[in-house]
Amino acid sequence: MRLISCRLQNTRRHRTLELTFGRQITLIAGANESGKSTLVEALHKGLFLRATATGRAVETLRSRVHPGLPEVEIHFEAAGDGWRLRKRFAGASGTCQLSNSNGLALNGAAAEEQLAALLGFEGPVEGRRMAQLPARWAHLWVRQGEAGMNPFSGGQAHYDHNRLVEQLQQGNTGDALQSELDHKVLERIRAQVAELYTATGRVKAGSVLATAQLHSREAEAELAVAEQRLANLNEAMEQLRRIGERMHTIENELRPCLQRERDLARQLHLLNLTLIPQLEQAREQAQLQEQQQQQQQQQQRLQLSIEALQRKQQPLQQQREQLLKQQQHTAVAQQQLAVAQELLQLQLDLKRLESEAEQLHSHRLQLQQLQAEAEKLKQQRAALPPIQPEEVKELRRAEQALMQANTRIESMAATLVVQRSDRPVRLNGQELSLGEEHPIHDQARLEVGDTVVLEWSPGGGEALPNALAQQKQCLQQLQRWQQQLGVPSSDDAEAIERERQLLEAGLSNLRQSARAIPWSGLEERLAAIAPRRQQLEEAIANHSLPETQPQLGATELENQLDRSRQQSHDLNNQHQQQTRQATLVEEELERSKQSLSDQQAQLAQLEGALAVRQQRLDNLQQRAINSEALAEQQQQQEQLQRDLSEHRQQRQASGWHPELDAESALSALEQEREQLLQQKGQCEQRCNSLGSNNPSAECEHRQAMRDLAQAELQAQQQRGEALRLLLDHFHRAQANLAARYSEPLKAAITPYLRCLGDGNNKPLLAFDPQAGFHALQMQQAGEAFGFEQLSGGMREQMAAAVRLAMAVVLKPAYNNALPVVFDDAFTNSDRQRLQGLQEMMQLGLDQGLQIVLLTCHGEDYAQLAMAQTKKPSAADGGPDVMQVNLG
User: Fold this and answer.
1) Would you tell me how many other CB atoms lie within 10 Å of the CB of residue 866?
2) For 539-597, what is the HEC assignment?
3) At what angle do helices 662-690 and 208-249 cross, to 10 degrees?
4) In the chain, what are the domains?
5) Residue 425: CB atoms within 10 Å
6) 154-212 pLDDT, tens per residue?
């Protein structure tokens, strides 16, 4: 298959683009956004995308600047004939026309199918399957940005796997790698395995094996139901037997035993009603006698304790009176010391007030001085013009701009000097003196005498007038700033601004000094000192001072006040200690009194209780109890208790409600009997229902059906395992011959890698019958590097070598011609490798490939195109080389 020419209409930026391809190489150069990638995409979609496709696949091809639908027309050679393809992408209304030189003309679906067959595919790509489009001829057409991708990374769908294997088989010089019969047998085995299993190895739904599994599971389930029915019948019959046995136990064993136990309990209860009051009376009398004896002993102990407490109270009262006298003496000393401390504090406050008044007067004087200095500086600042540093900079820029303009004019102006003349010389009507210089900046009129008149115009075009205009503008700008600031120059303005900054700094220092003075509320504090002093003096005068007391300073007063406070603290501690001791004595005395009162009250209660118990004992002794009758009744009670205990032990051994009494146990027994009767009826009904059919026969029938289903399943499983084992043997045999597929392809890649300048570079490649070609590596200096481990430029170059080698191998299957397209494929390759890349392409051209190279740097490949131009052209006509510049 070889591209001859193409014509694009309304594709992105191209209104109309016609292009003829060289038989060997086509070099298309152009800057970015010139439409190179649009050309490649339009050709690719024209060859592989159905014309009626919709969606993003077609929207990305449409032009946003030209009206109309995208159209692609391609003239190419295939299958030994010339073909012309024309597609118009218009959604459901899209059209496809295909014709050849023998007069065959096809339209629509027929044209699409014929085109796909010529290109080696079953059909075109539908719009809803847009994801398949990039895989079409991905091994031949390198899109922009995809040059560094591994050609085998996408699997068999991204390269022409089947034809590549066929061509490698045909090129093998030894035995055939796989005969046609082998291929048919393998495909038949694969088809039969695919009928039974999915690609992941699971049983395929709807297959014979899946049906056998379903029948086996259903037979198992039906057998389980039959077995469960038989088990339910046996369980119901066993439950009916257990109910009968329990009914017999209740009627013949439990009920008579419980009735006898109930009678014994009733007799024991009647006897206890008679015996218990007598026993209670005897126990009460004994308890009263014992309590009376204990209370008499307690009465004696209380009397002794009361006498001891009374003896202890007298020394405690004496100690309390002594502590109260000491407390009064200490309180008087504290009061006298407090008066002295108050006087010392007043004197100290007066001294501190006088010191504070002196300090406040000093602060007021300092503040007045600072305010006077600040007012003076503010007056000096107000006398200066308000010039800011930015304004000084602008004035200086205006002066510099005017100076530069003057310099520029002076450099372009001419100078006229009259050295000697016998006639008067006038410039623009003004007579000139000998030796005097006159600059000329603009057009001038020079007169020599009355007969010579010269017109002078400066050269340089508009340069001098522009310079004069700029000079005037700069002069006006400078005058505005001078007038605004009121100074003749920037130096004067800078001196004023510097003096203003010094005044501002002085004011800032004065403000900083004023912050150190506590001036807030200064006058109010000064005014408040006099009333405070008068109050202190009056308070001191109210104290009667000794006439010989010396005048002490603030320090002496503070020391004396500290000593007085220490004495007060010591007296306070002494007073607190005396108070604690008095409190302890008082508490102990109160406890003694309270204990004495409690014991006296307790003694009175004991005397009353003894009188009551004595009266109760007298009453009990008046009622005599017959001891012989009481002993006989006690023996009868013990006998009844033994008999009742034996019956209860028997019931406990039977496990029938040992925690209940006889009456409650009989009631529970009746309830159980009623429940058993109901369960018996239910079990009889269930047995009749389950035994209506013969469960044993049903179970045997279902077991036979299950055995048949399992035998069928086992047969199908053995068949499937045998097919998979046979397929595995085929795959292992193919794997053993995999090297015969990969070695020819590696041999085809190696010459291209040698063109890169290093003869030690060798490709490594693996082949798997299922996965195809994979594990592409580069062997350098005896070490293998995976494709992804290579640099960006090396990946581009190795991928190009693989693509060219595959195209050479596949070429016989496509009428000995295949186009290989590189769209800006070597962006990461350095200049040093450019010669090697060109040699790789030259090798592909020599082997009959058609190369279409699109690049932003056409000059890099001009040498390759020039080398092909010098070769003899093909005999069948048509240029071998085409160079196109897209602009």
Assistant:
1) 11
2) HHHCCCCCCCCCCCCHHHHHHHHHHHHHHHHHHHHHHHHHHHHHHHHHHHHHHHHHHHH
3) 140
4) 1-21+30-135 (3.40.50.300), 137-177+739-856 (3.40.50.300), 389-490 (no CATH)
5) 19
6) 888 888 877 887 787 775 544 445 556 766 787 788 788 888 888 778 888 888 888 98
216-223 long-range contacts, Cβ below 8 Å, gap at least 24? 216/706, 216/709, 216/710, 216/712, 216/713, 218/709, 219/702, 219/705, 219/706, 219/708, 219/709, 219/710, 220/706, 220/709, 222/702, 222/705, 222/706, 223/699, 223/702, 223/703, 223/705, 223/706
Name the pTM for this structure.
0.44
Burial class (CB in 10 A: 0-12, 13-18, 19+), 849: buried
For the chain, give me the number of helices (H) and strands (E)? 19, 20
**Closest alpha carbon to 404 in 461, 496, 477:** 477
CA distances from 331 to 326, 340, 568, 571 (A): 9, 15, 11, 8
Where residue 50 falls (left for φ over 0; alpha for ψ -120 to 50; beta otherwise) is beta
Q: Which two tokens stand for residue 493?
A: 């303005």
DSSP letters, 472-516, are HHHHHHHHHHHHHHT-SSHHHHHHHHHHHHHHHHHHHHHHHHHHT
User: What pLDDT, in 10s, does the model give residues 336-395?
Assistant: 777 777 777 777 777 777 776 777 676 667 766 767 777 777 777 776 777 777 877 887
Taking residue 550's Cβ as centre, other Cβ atoms within 10 Å add up to 6
Q: How far apart are CA 170 and CA 185, in angstroms?
A: 20
Phi-psi region of 428 (alpha: psi -120 to 50; beta: other; left: phi over 0): left
Angle at 34 between CA 32 and CA 40, to 5 degrees: 95
